[in-house]
């Protein structure tokens, strides 16, 4: 039975992950992605999640999940414990980005990072013409309720990786109508990178 | 026994609920805390209150007796049917008293293993318990990993902190300061009731939280039954009542022996727990509670850390509760959810689980 996820970022990540590998999903939420990866890719999966209700959802899915925050939950793992560490839609919510990314690169052989692109054209238009904090499909929060602490663009992440000597192995972009490849810093709503060191 | 001495005979009081399946794969051992007993579920004849974890064990409950075979026994050193200091020493024909050998958590577990052997269970589906029960769970995990498929340690610690030892020591000192204690040789005469009840009162304070005590008692002064004590604060009446009630059902020497076993326990024998877990394939579900200051979450997280380092299949949840250490007996809904699904996965495998769809 093939398992379907209706989230395009999940489907793309599932294509990026090698079958049978071990995966640590940081900020795994209710566990939809982990469940997809286990079913479609036969991965050995572990989640870390801060929200108590999401923990209950994960356990109901039969997943292994640790209740805790990303900032402190990662340091306890030995080097290269997992084939992949996933930071999907959670990088922009961690307090200290640099140490977390460093730790993911230590704990995982490869790291998958997915985040909303703050330089998407609709974000630019809202900011420029309306003069308002942008609210879009990939960033659906008002300024006063957003869990996002950091706002970065596709270009920002390229510069970050260059400055920190991080190797970018792959990049995938999701635009208005699905996957795109041209001018991602303008047309990508969501960017997904596979990085390593 | 770990202390080097031998007990010539041991009685183990146990209860079992549900039925062992033909393949003998559905047995779960429930292990009790300091003052618990074998009666984990159901009512004994004439009893007003059910077993200590009745809300969790029974048909359709977390430990579903329609599916699983639940075993529960009184610990070695106890006073509810299993051999302890109040039992008759067959060598002398008199109660052991302080001639009873020092017991350890591992000794308790070794007795449980004899019971499990006796019941013909080669591999337990799970071993579960909170507080001192959680210590026994960890002892099972490190001593007999091949005899179990999963463990559920709740509100517990790999080893006691100085704070936990200190509270136990106050309890022990209260008992030993009682004139009726007589170096443990009080059987046949009045028991050290005053000392034991003070020990229990200290215990009860540590089982609650600041918030739960505010909610339960506030600064109210209760002049009505059942806690009627000279216009005292309700909280005082509560402690007196529970102290006196405890004396009627518990043996003071058992309290000394069991608390000593808890304080001496170290699941990792001074080393790191993960060294003992390497190569183990047990599934682990660790549960802690936010307001528990007697067994704070940082201690349960050390178990989680060991699971991470050893690469075990494990889950951890810190349940939001204001009940303090008592939460593991009171927060039924959340624990039921976690344990039900966890056991289902261990019992049926992941695949069977996901077919039911979530």
- Portion in strands of chain B: 5-15%
Number of strands of chain B: 11
Q: What letter string, H or E per element, gives the SSE order of chain A?
A: HEHEHEHEHEHHEEHE
Radius of gyration of chain A, Cα only, in angstroms?
16 Å
Q: Please give the CATH class of chain A.
A: Alpha Beta
- CATH architect. name of the largest domain in chain B: 3-Layer(aba) Sandwich
What are the low-pLDDT stretches of chain A, counting only 5+ consecutive residues below 50? none
Mean pLDDT of chain B: 94
Task: Enumerate the strands of the largest sheet of chain A in spatial order, edge to edge or round the barrel.
Answer: 3-2-1-4-5-8-6-7
Structural class of chain B: alpha/beta
Number of domains of chain B: 2
Report the structural category of chain A.
Answer: alpha/beta
Describe what is shown at a glance.
By secondary structure, chain A is of the alpha/beta class.
Describe the structure.
The complex is a heterodimer of chains A (197) and B (358). Chain A has 197 residues and is α/β, with parallel strands linked by helices. Chain A is built from 8 helices and 8 strands, in the order αβαβαβαβαβααββαβ. Chain A has an 8-stranded mixed β-sheet, with helices on both faces. In chain A, strand 6 (167-175) and strand 7 form a beta hairpin. In chain A, helix 1 (8-16) crosses helix 2 (32-41). The longest helix of chain A is centred in the middle third of the chain and has 11 residues, at 97-107. Chain A is globular. The mean pLDDT of chain A is 95. Chain B folds into 2 domains: 14-161 and 267-355, 3-Layer(aba) Sandwich (Rossmann fold); 164-259, Orthogonal Bundle (Rna Polymerase Sigma Factor, Chain: A), CATH 1.10.1740.110. Chain B has 358 residues and is of the alpha/beta class. In chain B, the strands form 3 sheets. Chain B has a 7-stranded mixed β-sheet with strand order 1-5-2-8-9-10-11, sandwiched between helices. In chain B, 51% of the residues are buried. The longest helix of chain B is centred in the C-terminal third of the chain and has 17 residues, at 332-348. Chain B has helices spanning 105-118, 132-143, 162-177, 193-207, 210-216, 234-249, 252-264, 273-277, 297-310, 327-330, 332-348, 350-355; strands at residues 14-17, 27-30, 57-58, 63-64, 69-73, 88-89, 94-95, 126-130, 150-154, 283-289, 314-319. Chains A and B meet through helix 2, helix 3 and strand 3 of A and helix 9, strand 11, helix 11 and helix 12 of B.
